[in-house]
Design a protein that fits this description.
By secondary structure, this protein is mainly α. The protein contains five helices and three strands. Helix 2 packs across helix 4. It starts with about 20 loop residues before the first helix and ends with a helix.
Length: about 120
């Protein structure tokens, strides 16, 4: 008896396991602790800098700025500076970011439901 497999049935269906794959960079940006928290925070609508900082308790100003810049450069969030005094900047998800958050939310919900059992073993 011989078994044939289609190319789609290979154990490595995506190049993410390859060292030079660009998806590793995106995966690193998206799955960083602060990246996930910022993306999920923006799921319910635009937020200002201070609102994001309050929502992601413990994030430093430096890490917030760095993470926002990375997620904006990746095309997941949109930064809109308002021409007012004092300065106002709003952050929101792009269409790409909304699609990503739809994928992240089940993971975040699962983690929050099981975190106590996992941490307290």
């Amino acid at each position: 008896m011989s078994v044939t497999t289609s190319p789609q049935a290979s154990p490595n269906p995506t190049p993410v396991f390859e060292a030079g794959c660009p998806s590793r960079t995106v995966l690193d940006h998206v799955t960083s602790k602060w990246g996930v928290l910022i993306l999920v925070s923006l799921a319910q609508g635009p937020l200002r800098w201070s609102e994001l900082r309050r929502r992601a308790e413990g994030i430093s100003e430096k890490m917030l700025a760095q993470t926002l810049k990375i997620l904006e450069a990746d095309g997941f969030i949109h930064r809109e500076a308002q021409p007012v005094i004092p300065p106002r900047v709003d952050y929101s998800l792009t269409e790409l970011g909304q699609g990503l958050v739809q994928q992240l939310m089940p993971l975040v919900v699962w983690i929050s439901e099981h975190a106590d059992d996992i941490v307290n073993g």
